[in-house]
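Following up on my earlier message about pyridoxal-5'-phosphate. Here are the inputs again, as you asked, copied directly from the submission form:
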Amino acid sequence: MIATLDIQVTKTGKSKLPEIDFNNLPFGKYFTDHMLEVDYADGEWKQVTIKPFQNLSLSPALAAIHYGQSIFEGIKAYKDREGNPFIFRPFDNYKRFNVSAERMMMPAVPEDIFIEGMRRLIEIDKDWIPMKTDYSLYIRPFMFSTDEVIGVKASDSYKFMILLSPTGPYYSAPMKIYVEEKYTRAARGGIGFAKAAGNYGSSMMATAVAKKQGYDQVLWTDAFEHKYVQEIGTMNVFFVIGDKVLTPDLEAGTILEGVTRDSAIAVLREEGYTVEETSINIDDVVRAYEAGELKEVFGTGTAATISMIRELRYEDYTMKFDTDSWKVAPTVKRVLTDIREGRKADTRGWMFKI
Ligand SMILES: *Cc1c(COP(=O)(O)O)cnc(C)c1O
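Thanks, got it. Here's what our run produced:
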C-alpha cells in the first residue's frame, strides 16, 4: 500500500460525535466530522485534502447539475470484536468506480487517492465506527463534473470526494416486489452497469408507482421484451429453483455488478450450492413457482446485505413465500456476518485493515 500519499489535513476544532444518538441512525442522515476532497483540472489530480465536513460553494452553471456526469460508490467499514477497524472489499469498489468513470467519460481516480485517502479519512474519524453487530460506517465516494459552462460536452474538470456516515442495523423486513413491465432501467449499450447518478433518478417513477400499489420495490426486466429479469432497486437478485441458485448474468451490461452479489456467489459455492449466472425468464420463474420448485427469492447489496422477498407480483399473478423456512438466504447472511466478525476465517482477503 502506498502510504506516501500527500494529504493536507485540517481537523475540526469541535467534534459532533457527542451529539449523535447511536441508537437512532437513519441510513445516510448523519455524517462524520471530516470529508475528503480533491479536484481534477488541467489533466491532473490536485492536492488531496481532508477537512471538516462542510458545504460546497458551486456555480449554478456546474456541468454535473445540467448534464449528469456523476458517479458514486457504497462501501462499509466495521470494527471486529477487538475493536480493530477494517473496510469490506474496497478494492472491488475501486475497480467498479473507474469502470463507471470510463463509461461516463470521466477521469480515472488513482488507487492511492481512493484507497489510501479513504483509509486516512476513516482513521481520523474511527471513533464514529459503531462497534455493534450489524452497525457500520457507510462510505460514500463520489465524483462529478465541475466545468462552469452550459454546453453539452464531457467536462474538463471534476471533483472527487468521500463522505462517511454511521449507520445502524439496516433491518429490512421481507419485501413485496412488483415485476416491472412498463418502465425500463437499463438497455444494452446504456449505462446500467455503471453506478451513475442518472440511473437512480430515472428509476424513481416506477418505484413510486409500485409503492402506491403496496409494493416495496420493482424487479426490473429487459428493455425489449420485459421478460428477462435484471435487478431490484439497488440490489442484485437471486432465485433458488430446485437445487440450484440462479442469478442474472452480466453479459448485456444492464446490471450493476454488485460486490455483495460476488460475495454471495463465492459463499454459496463454498457451502456446496450450485450457483449459475444465466438469463432468467420471468415465465420460467412462474412455472417453477407453480411446480413448487421456486424456494427462495432474495436481493443482495451493501446497504442491507441480504433482503428476503416474501411476495413477487407478475402481471395478475402473485407468488408468496414463507421466508421463515428458508435456508439459502440466511446462510449467506450468517457466513458474511461471521467473516466480518472474525468467527470465520477471511480466506479471500476481503477485510482490509485500516
Ligand atoms: C449498488 C448497487 C447494487 C449492489 O451492489 P453492492 O456492491 O453489492 O452494494 C446493485 N444494484 C444497483 C443498481 C446498485 O446501485
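One observation from looking it over: The chain is about 25% helix and 30% strand. Hope that helps, and feel free to reply on this thread.
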